[in-house]
Amino acid sequence: MNIVHVYKDYFPVLGGIENHIRQLAEAQAAQGHRVTALVTALGRRSDETIMNGVRVIKAGRLMNVQSAPLSLSFLSYLRRCTAEADIVHLHAPYPPGEAANLWLGRGRKTVITWHSDIVRQKTLLRVYGPILRRVLRRVDGIIPTSEAYARSSPWLQAHLDKCFPVPLGINAERFRPDAVDAERIATLRRRWLANRTATRETQNEPLIVLSVGRLRYYKGLDDLIRAIATVQDVIAVIVGEGPLGGAWRALAGELGVVDRVLFAGEVSDADLPAYYCAADVFVSSANARAEAFGIAILEAMACGLPAISTEVGTATSWINQHEITGLVTPARNPAALARAITTLRDDAERRRRMGRAARQRIEAGFTEQQMIAGVQAVYERVLSSASRV
Fold this sequence. Notes:
By secondary structure, the chain is an alpha/beta fold. It has helices spanning about 15-30, 70-80, 95-105, 120-140, 145-150, 180-195, 220-230, 245-255, 270-280, 295-300, 315-320, 335-345, 350-365, 370-385, and strands at about 1-5, 35-40, 45-50, 55-60, 65, 70, 85-90, 110-115, 140-145, 205-210, 235-240, 260-265, 280-285, 305-310, 325-330. It folds into 2 domains: about 1-170 and about 370-385, Rossmann fold (3-Layer(aba) Sandwich), CATH 3.40.50; about 170-365, Glycogen Phosphorylase B (Rossmann fold, 3-Layer(aba) Sandwich). α11 links the parallel β14 and β15.
């Protein structure tokens, strides 16, 4: 099968969608498919290479418009790449890629993984909305990452008949707690705990909560920082960088918690499992539907961490089951987040029980193998169907 993935970025750019495309493309290439990832370069020069069996084409970038890179050479690459494609696999949201394929794509069938609605760019939607509706009418299959998101998305509700949900999956074996170097875990904990000693009269070792992801507005880390400022014996470790990193570091300073809110910066894929395993609880403090799924929640749960997540009407509360694998709190509510953190801080047995349930939930439905098989099933379904809808 000849498969072309279309998006704006690819490894070494780090992000949930970028990581997913790389994971999927490399697995498909390993199965013997011809796989191309068509994205934009970070600069003006185009580049083509083979990465782990995947042909990666990075079209020279002219500019960015509301986080969407524009590239003239992307159009000619797309027309050539899709000429012999059995499947053109779009990854949304990336309006230039979706529109380009609508007008220039020549693949036999087109599917689109709906990673998220366009949430914040209201001006863009006024212009792009009619085109997006045409894109959704024309594609042969839509892959939402959860049924819950498909049914709650105003864009997908009219197309549920061709929505085939496939949950995102991870390499669960890589995140097995017993597969991670114990000395590395101990070293991280010592480093984090050295920043803050226990403050309560009980002199308990502080609870370590972890957040992982790009520092973007919808991660809601201002709410987490405000929550940490109101609780004792808790250290928050924040992994990632992004546009709000400076503002959130400043907020920690204003609230006097720089010794208890530790910004770890970017962490390599190889080191990430140790960070999860060195923590006690994972926290996702998302505040908008742009947090459509939550790969980091999966990774943390695979490491046996209980999760605290916020209710934003997406898959996060389906992945993290309230009172089973963790706790779910209202979004944009630092006080509720603080109460959830305190609850798990004070009940080690509850944390252990939830952590075991979390690992079991990942093994049951969120592995890389299950995701790859699910996407393959969608490809086969649309290829065996009649002409494009």
